[in-house]
Each structure stands twice: as C-alpha cells, then as structure tokens.
Amino acid sequence: MRPTYSLYLGIIFILYSNCSQKTTTNLAEAPTPSFAHLPLEAVPLTELSAWNNPGANWQLAGTAFGAYAKEKDLQLTEGSGILANLPSDSARENLFSSWEHGDLELELEFLLPKGSNSGVYLQGRYEVQLLDSWGNGELRHADCGGIYQRWDPSRGEGKEGFEGHPPQTNASRAPNLWQKFHILFRAPKFDESGQKISPATFEWVYHNGQLIHENVEVFGPTRAAAFEDEAPMGPLMLQGDHGPVAFRNIRFKKYGAQQIDLGALSYEIFDYEGDTRPDFDSLSKIQEGTVDSFNIAQTSEKREHFAMKLSGEITVPTSGTYLFQTLLDDGGDLFIDGQPVVQNGGEFEFERLGGVVDLTQGTHTLELHFFQVTWRAHATVFYEGPEMELQPLASIDPFANRQKAKPLVIEPGETPEMLRGFVQYKDEKRTQVLSVGHQEGVHYSYDLEEGALLSVWKGKFADVSQMWVARGHSQLLQPLNAPIEPHAGISLAFLDESQANWPLEAPAGFKAIGYHLDEGMNPIFDYQMGELTWEDQFEPLPDQVGLKRSINLSAEGPQEGLYFKVAEGTTIDKMPNNLYRIDGSYFLDVGELNVNLTDLGSQKALLLPVLADTKQEELSYSLIW
Q1: Cα–Cα–Cα angle for 180, 184, 186, rounded to 5 degrees
Q2: Please, what's the b/e burial string for 308-317 (b: 16 or more CB within 10 A of its CB; e: otherwise)?
Q3: Helix (H) or strand (E) holding 299
Q4: What are phi and psi of 425, to 5 degrees?
Q5: Are residues 70 and 390 in contact, defined by beta-carbon separation less than 8 angstroms?
Q6: pLDDT, tens only, 498-514
C-alpha cells in the first residue's frame, strides 16, 4: 500500500523545492506530495538593502545571546542572518522597510533580553508589542503579543490610552530565547473618494504557534506610530528607540492582486465501477454538457459509480509560481496545459493534495479527471499565486464555514493529572504517550516506549476535544500553550570511538517496565536494559521557571561506554553558569554534570558518561523556557 500524504490545514506551512519546474511525474508513479502554501518571501539579512536608511543602532550579526537573568544583556557575534538593534543615547532610530504593503502575511523570529521592549508596526501604524513578559500573570495590551493601545491626550488625564488588546494567553519564552510571530494583517480599505469603509484588522496573530488574537479591528494608528493618518499602503516598521532586540527569518507575502479567472467548463460523465483512477478510453459516456464550477454533485445524474472529465481555460493575470490543490471524494488528477500537477489515485480519504507549477500571464488549459465510488461526490480546486491568497477556484470549500469545536479542557487538581493518549511530535503522531499536568502550571508529554520527553509547556494544561468529542478523528491531546519539543528517541546507549551517530534504535535488552507513583502522586518511569535499571522523574520548578528531570541509574557493576543523551539540537550554545541554549528555544541548566558537547552527524548533543566506575548514579538537570 502506498504511503498517505497528509496535509494539516490551518497555519502549518511546508516549504517546497524545485518549484520553478513544471510537474512532469508519470501517472503511474507516486502522487504529487502535498503543499500547504507557497513559501513566503524572505527578507535578506546578509545586508541592509531591504531597509530605508538604517540608523547606527541597527546592525547585522551571526549570533545573538545573553544571560536570561541579566537586565538588557544582548551580545552579538560578527556575521549575518540576524538583524539587531542596540540603541544608545545618540542612536535609537526606528527601522522602515524599503517596500510598502496593504494586506500582509508576516512571519518573523525575535529575541529579547530581560526587561527589553520593542514593537512591530504594520504599515508603520499598528503595533504588535514586543516585551519581556516571561512569567507575567494578568496580561495587558503592553505585554508581548499585545496589540498596543491608541493614544489621545485630549481624552483627559488617565484616559489617554484606549482600544488596546491583550494577548489571549502568555506564550512568552524566557529572555534571550528565540520566539516567533505569525501575523495575517488586513489593511484599512477606502472608497474612491478616500473615505474609509473598513478598519485595519489583525485577522490572526500567533505567538510561538499559539493563537493570541483573532479578528481584532484597530480603528486608528496605535501609540508611537510613525504616521498619524491611515492609508491603503505603508512600510513595515521595527521599533528601535526602546530596548535591545534581535530579529531573524523575516518573511512576508503581500496580498491583493487580481485573481485567476475560470471560463466555462465542459464535462463528460462515464459509467465506471472501479475504485482507482480509470482508463477513460475504455468507458462509455453517459452525459455531457457545460458548467461554471466544479460542483460535481449537482452536475452528475448518477450519485455513485461514475467517472468524469471537466475541461476549460484559466486566465492567469501575473506570471509566476502557482500552487494548485484538490480536495476530492473519491479521487482524480488535475492537469494544467496537459501536465499533471496534482495526482490522487483515490487512497487519501478526502484530504487536500497539491502541486506547484510555473505559469506565464495569459490563457492556459485546465482539466480535472474525477471518479466516484460510493457515498458523497465532491471536488474542490484551490489555488494560490503571486500576491494571491489560497482560495477556491470556482468551487465550494466544504470546510469554509465549519465552526471550531469548543475546547474540552482538562486541568490538574491537587495531584498531577495523567492522561494516556496520542500526541503530535513534530511531523509524527506518537501513540505510547503519558501527558502529565501539574497544578503549578508546568506540564509535559512523555513517550513511554522510548523514555523520551516529547514536549513541555506552561499555563493551562490540555484540550482533549480531539480525543473525546464526536468520533475523535485525530485522537490528539492538544497543549493549551506553545510547547517546547526537546529531542525524542532513546536517551541511553552504548557508544564506542568509531560511532559518529547516536543509535536510532534502543539497545538490546531495553524494556519499558511501566511507572509507579511517589508520595505526591507524580509518576516515576521504570526501564530495564539487561542488568541495568533506570528510573526517570519530572517535577515543576518554582514560579513556572521550567521543569526538573531526575534520573536514577543502577547496575550490577560499572558499564563501559554507556552514555546518557541530555540534549540534542542543530545548535547548542554554551552560556555562563552551567547553562546551554538548545536551538535557541530553551535553556538547559546542567548544574555540576560533566557533559560533553559532541557532534553527532548533522546534530549536536550533550552527552554524559554514566556508570563508568560505579554501580549506581543519580543525575538531574533542568529545562528553562
């Protein structure tokens, strides 16, 4: 059976490669992989040409770091890829993009030292606040991710500020860790006379993957905006007159261009009893005509067991790379200019599949091959192009008006809450998982099979609606705040000098025993590997700082070449006071542990030799984020 290519809807963005070439895959081969969206355009950070007259406080850097507990400690190394603001009394200029925008999708990562403050201004007018809000409880518009208030001195003393919007939840990480905003902004709209007919709107804002704003209207420039008026277009502004801040991976896409036009569609319907893509030349035609959409259910006189061809022309307003997607029940293929762009043999259970193709301005042929087996018959074609949002092409999106399921929230009581269930770790669904919630507001998910810490998060515990509501389609437990995902995989292995990579599989004899509870009802996870036993336990650190991990290892005698993998990442930065920063997303406090920073193929790792000269060893370290 061929693998299923799943597309997770919403804001999961998958980059593609070789998008400048037309899809030429033979129909007998595997289907075109899915694409969620076309990639956003990257702002180059090898030089500053994308910015207008940057002040002396702005510079490029190779890395940005600092102590998380030290006030406004931002240190830089030479290089590029990071845009940093180090304001001084003589240089504290705001930074403006050399391009302007109306509707805009924006992604960027930022790093703030302790006590620092900055802001991202859409059109130079509407601010999403940047602030060190780590650990803040009651949130205000001035906290990180808040849409800042407007300001009018004429309202009277104490009433000058108004219309600010705090974030829905505090997704902030510790100072000097990298964080991320993902924003969809709608510019204010004006009629031909210049009268404003709709306000600026933040359709959504995600902070570290957590939704913090949805459909927030802003009726005028926020405080400290660069412009007092409102307009259809304006530059992106990064605030430079407050505190130090660093940015990286700034990407954007403007919206508002003309759309693809689809002419009349000719269709042919055939008798068909199969359950995969048909040979149309061998089928009997039973119906034909013209339609103006892909509404198959209203076109075909048959409800089941038929195949269909729809063909027509599309008018493309702008040359460039286009994404096409199909959502078909049961299956079929999409062709542009006779070339297969999306292929679906019918094994994908009503999921979106997509492919990219370069198109020139002008007219192109489009053809959809469809087959229906049983139950409902449905086809939707979507597209996305230069300055064009992902949208249906003369189709009805069956999920467009679907209401979100009301969260089914589980919160821990006086003792830890433990839930067995499925958890999404990166691109993989893990099934042997225990998720543990603490009243202190620090939670984690743990892979029982491998003894791996999959994710940690703070605040509220978990939404289990996907597990328990209706049919529980995905069965996933959802953390209620932005999680950190440490490395998965086995953490204990024997290594020798010739090994360049950490073993992918557990050592021989490795066995998960289960878990038992301590006096506070916290789970202690038990493992065995030959003569060796291993206990693993977690507890929240005070004030929601992070999570402490304690491991107890014992064996009948010393174990030569046995290592414990404390952390793994693409980048591991050694910091003062026994701290390491892992992939910029969390700190690891190793205390007195004598860890070795080691290259393991494409990854770096912190390895700790254990039981080298003793029968029993206890070790602990803390994750801070």
Answers
A1: 145
A2: bbbebebebb
A3: helix 296-299
A4: -115, 110
A5: no
A6: 777 888 888 888 999 99
